[in-house]
TrEMBL record:
It comes from Natrialba asiatica (strain ATCC 700177 / DSM 12278 / JCM 9576 / FERM P-10747 / NBRC 102637 / 172P1). Residues 75-282 form the AMP-dependent synthetase/ligase domain. Keywords: Ligase, Nucleotide-binding. GO terms for molecular function: nucleotide binding; phenylacetate-CoA ligase activity. Residues 332-426 form the AMP-dependent ligase C-terminal domain. Monomer. The lineage of its organism: Archaea, Methanobacteriati, Methanobacteriota, Stenosarchaea group, Halobacteria. Pathway: Aromatic compound metabolism. InterPro entries: AMP-bd_C_sf, AMP-dep_Lig_C, AMP-dep_synth/lig_dom, ANL_N_sf, PA_CoA_ligase. GO terms for biological process: phenylacetate catabolic process. This is Phenylacetate-CoA ligase.
Length: 426
């Protein structure tokens, strides 16, 4: 582990303050958008004399990225840009993000750190099944694995049978992909008559979409690996913002020397105390092309500053339980898809595949839940349905309008990109 990762918190805060001041000054000088925002909020960059003063700065939002499309938030000239990525917004314009040479170095550094925290080193072979292209997953993991000195197999996503063959034949130690795709790789190996636990893989670095504990267990058991979670987003840098350590697997260490995290109440914007669930807000502390101040990620989680068993002093965020805009309201009861997932996947008799369909009938919202049965399930379906219904009622205080159990393999699998679990037909 690099010494920065176990820096005394006072020293870390001094570094954060210095970098925050530089970033704010840079944004005010080079990005008209921030200059306007600071003027409107009546703040002057020179007033930032403590890290807490960050709370006086205005937030940046997804809408700001869209309004400033394509490059209104860039702080450097086009000539200094070395790479452009974009996030795949489902609606509207994509969010365009740019990197200078130094930003790419930074990205590779935080990704190499992330891979090392996951237990990898320069002797490992890393199969990177995140999509290459505008999505930051592919090239982000690629750059980090190269920086670490590992051998990278840039398979990108899809072509799953070939993924299985290459993992087996090239002795891949680690697979990088979304959690849903990791399970699909296991399933495909089984279809090919290959026991997934016999593959040489010992680590899966998953991320880019939510993953509940039962889902992680399914990945770990089916592939015989340690599942290590990664978190990041294009607007901040891509993957490489936070990662679990192999030693504890107990929360994701945020690389706080470069990305400053806060948790706010999504309704009021007020800061929340350590340990409380709220919306994650991130500030970049050393980006050149695209400095981002107090970005409202929309991701719901909590932070702890307790030192980790691994010795790292950097804050840990909990797994993302959902997005502020994912909230489902079922007859007045609020819940997140991940809560439904956690409740349902606790049953050994179901497979980790489900979908939620939202509809509107006679002016009322309805929710239909479809869950796959485990491949070897031959018990009483009606009794199982009742058990699941009861569990949802006891843990989340609601029952879906329809709950269907379907045969193993009936729900469509996602081979490329992020999985869709909620289909809104309203
Ligand atoms: O998904 C970057 C990434 C690639 C992270 C590979 C990890 C691994 P975007 O496409 O911009 O970037 O999407 C960012 O994905 O705001 C979260 O809502 C979600 N997300 C990312 N990681 C996780 C995670 C990449 N570990 C958006 N758990 C974020 C839950 C995640 N959601």
């Amino acid at each position: 582990m690099g010494s920065t990762e176990s820096l005394a918190r006072d020293d870390l805060r001094a570094k954060q303050l210095q970098r925050l001041r530089e970033t704010v000054a840079d944004a005010a000088e080079n990005v008209p958008f921030y200059r306007r925002k600071f003027d409107d909020a009546g703040v002057s960059p020179s007033e930032i004399d403590s890290i807490e003063a960050i709370e006086d700065l205005p937030f940046t939002t997804k809408e700001d990225f869209r309004a400033e499309y394509p490059d209104g938030l860039f702080a450097v000239d086009t000539a200094d840009i070395r790479r452009i990525h974009a996030s795949s917004g489902t609606t509207g314009k994509p969010k365009i993000v740019g990197y200078t040479e130094r930003d790419l170095d930074l990205w590779h550094e935080v990704m190499a750190r992330s891979l090392a925290a996951a237990g990898l080193d320069d002797t490992d072979t890393v199969q990177n099944a995140y999509g290459y292209g505008l999505f930051t997953g592919g090239l982000g993991f690629h750059g980090g694995a190269e920086e670490l000195g590992a051998a990278v197999i840039p398979t990108s996503s899809g072509n799953t049978r070939r993924q299985v063959e290459l993992a087996r034949d090239l002795g891949s130690d680690a697979l990088c992909c979304t959690p849903s795709y990791a399970l699909y790789v296991a399933e495909t190996a089984e279809e090919m008559g290959i026991d997934p636990t016999s593959l040489p893989l010992s680590t899966v670095l998953y991320g880019a979409e939510p993953c509940t504990e039962p889902m992680r267990e399914a990945i770990e058991n089916r592939l015989g690996v340690a599942g290590i979670e990664n978190y990041g987003l294009s607007e901040i840098i891509g993957p490489g913002v936070a990662v679990e350590c192999r030693e504890a697997q107990d929360g994701l260490h945020v690389w706080e020397d470069h990305f400053y995290p806060e948790i706010i109440d999504p309704a009021t914007g007020e800061a929340l105390p350590e340990g409380e669930d709220g919306e994650l807000v991130l500030t970049t502390l050393s980006k050149e092309a695209l400095p981002v101040l107090r970005y409202r990620t929309g991701d719901l989680t909590s932070l702890t500053y307790e030192e980790c068993a691994c010795g790292r002093t950097m804050a840990r965020m909990d797994g993302v339980t959902g997005r502020a805009d994912d909230l489902l309201v079922v007859r007045g009861v609020n819940c997140y898809p991940s809560q439904i997932e956690a409740a349902v996947l606790e049953f050994d008799s179901v497979a980790p595949y489900y979908r939620i369909d939202l509809d509107r009938e006679d002016g009322l919202d309805t929710l239909a839940l479809t869950v796959e049965l485990a491949a070897d399930y031959d018990g009483d379906r009606e009794a199982l349905r009742e058990e699941i219904r009861e569990r949802l009622h006891n843990t989340l205080s609601f029952a879906p309008d329809e709950l269907e159990l379907v045969a193993y393999g009936s729900i469509e699998r996602t081979e490329v990109g992020k999985v869709t679990r909620v289909y809104d037909h309203r």
